Amino acid sequence: MGHSGGVILEDFDGDGLLDLMLSSSGALDPLIFYHNNGNGTFTDRSAAAGLSGELGGLNLIAGDYNNDGHPDVLVLRGGWWGQNGKYPMSLLRNNGDGTFDDVTEQVGLLSLHPTQTAAWADYDGDGWLDLYVGHEANATENHPPQLFHNNRDGTFTEVAAPNGLANLGYVKGVAWGDFNNDGCPDLYVSVKGAANHLFRNDGPADPKHPRPDHWKFTDVTAQAGVAEPIHSFATWFFDYDNDGWPDLFVAGFYADTLDDIAAFEMGQPAKVETPRLYHNNHDGTFTDVTHPMKLDRAILVMDANFGDLDNDG
Prior knowledge:
This protein has helices at about 105, 220-225, 260-265; strands at about 5-10, 20, 30-35, 40-45, 60-65, 70-75, 90-95, 100, 115-120, 130-135, 145-150, 155-160, 170-175, 185-190, 195-205, 215-220, 230-240, 245-250, 255, 270-275, 275-280, 285-290. The strands form six sheets. It has a four-stranded antiparallel sheet, with no helix packed on it. It has a four-stranded antiparallel sheet with strand order 5-6-7-8, with no helix packed on it. It starts with 6 loop residues before the first strand and ends in a 25-residue tail after the last strand. The protein is mainly β. A hairpin with a 5-residue loop joins strand 21 (about 275-280) and strand 22 (about 285-290). The protein has three helices and 22 strands.
């Protein structure tokens, strides 16, 4: 009931029914876990699930980091709060029985940075999910993004800087997707107030001796044509036209004044940032098709999602 937060709809306890987890970003707002009773109702089992004391959370990201078949949860905190946003994120290990353990420190994820965006992907193809977390760096405080490599033993090692994925600015969105269909997940980073970044995953820098901290991520933003919007936020890859190639959506988040918001809604000239829908051209480049696809009609987009609403495939 407090502030903006995250939501996950997932079968957390393996009973075949979708449960619900909700967060709220207020510093004293509790994490809530609703168990699906199978009859159209839910029961609040937050305390029984071991979530008492898990406070705040501007976003929630699910992923099975330890390959035990149970979806775990990453809680992200501190976004928008600047120097007051140095809160830890939390990794909640799902025990598969309706309970969770906060394992943040023991797995090596404890850090204090303002954020609300992260994404799981197996960037090095070893069968274990790695994690990229974007942070909000500014002129007075540097909060570089972090790339956590999964060590396959329940711990992570941070390798963003040696892989060229640190110091990218005020990051508000990150997404993994294999845009060139080579089997390696590529990374898109959405930055507020600067050009965005598309990093092509080119595999180990030394194929004969692959090391997770010596990977080759090539910035192909310019040649791909996906730097805008300059003030951006939520982003994802998805194959909107079902041609087998991931396309890219990037939300815009900027209006110069309140007058510009009104002008935009009335169809008048306005200093605002609209979203971009980039169609994948199958050759390493993208084409901006936002206007013909009629997705340029929303501004100040902080979050969004997609799905097959009419079941047409």
